[in-house]
Specification:
110 residues; 4 helices
């Protein structure tokens, strides 16, 4: 049984890794593979918010991985749907903005 400080530590550790571009992919892979154990080790009000951990991704392919994770383990995170929907929109927006910037750069050099 973990006390609240341990639980907050586990949560902030993975949150920081998911925010760090160099290790984000590995952190996401770890989370997908260890989600049930992870849920046990974070504060109990947090599981429904865990889709937000994917919020720094900018690749729409990550939406499918995130959706698959919650299709499988959503029952461990009751109420996750709002956070999943918001995170999906965030990733889609980031991806669209990135495509727009790339298009602007391409046009600038032509």
């Amino acid at each position: 049984h973990h006390d609240i400080f341990d639980k907050i530590h586990h949560l902030s550790l993975i949150a920081n890794q998911m925010a760090e571009p160099a290790i984000r992919e590995d952190a996401a892979e770890w989370l997908v593979q260890n989600y049930p154990a992870f849920i046990e080790r974070i504060p109990r009000q947090w599981p429904r918010r865990t889709p937000r951990l994917f919020g720094k991704f900018c690749e729409v392919e990550k939406i499918n991985a995130m959706q698959a994770l919650f299709d499988t383990y959503g029952d461990l995170a009751p109420g996750y749907e709002a956070a999943l929907s918001q995170t999906r929109e965030q990733i889609e927006l980031c991806s669209a903005m990135r495509r727009e910037k790339i298009q602007e750069l391409v046009e600038a050099v032509q």
